[in-house]
Amino acid sequence: MRFTSETSSDGVLEQLFLLGDVPGVLWTPRGAHGTRPLIAMGHGGGQNKKAPGVVDRARRFVAECGFAVVAVDAPSHGDRPEHEEFTRIATEYEARLEAGEELAPLIAGFHALVVRQIVPEWQTVLNAVQKLSHVGIGPVGYWGVSLGCVIGVPLIAAESRVRAAVLGLGGAEVPAETAARITVPVEFLVQWDDERVPRTQSLALFDAFASTEKTLHANPGKHGEVPAFEMDSTLRFFARHLG
Question: How many CA atoms lie within 13 A of 97 on its CB side?
Fold first, then answer.
């Protein structure tokens, strides 16, 4: 892990890094020492590790809870070079979605790519970050909606370090059998008028989680209109489960 820049403001330290060819960013309390909970944050499609919403959430986790937060660029996003397979699937997905065509074959291919490449990348990032003296081996949470949800579900299913997750704005892109392997507490966000993810698909994904503690947060509005007040609930959720 190689840090490429470091800035600090309002008590939050931000460190950009490269781990192999994966670019990421770590936020921690300035001057922090010792072990603390870590939130892995997945960005949405077309976004990157420093999208405004990601940065705002990360800074609140650090400033209000004392957590560490890490985010990385998904393939073909942010500072990563174009990933041919990822870009092909994403481009065809958008075209088929617009035309109302069958998406199942693409979804299966994308899920295979996530499991084969992106989940191991995230596990390597967690390993490296938890070796840092100002993060340590504490409990891990995951936050991700839309693309972040699609990537997050197989990661959580495969990664025993994740103790709690906030997910949402996802549905058929995630196989039910993978979701059924998740038993940690889940807070799940649904936009009732989502133009990208049919409501029935979101509810089916929520139902597939095997968690004994799972909460559905449904709000009116389209895919990108999650109310700002949901962040307050997210903070309380992770504080309760990660300490």
Answer: 14
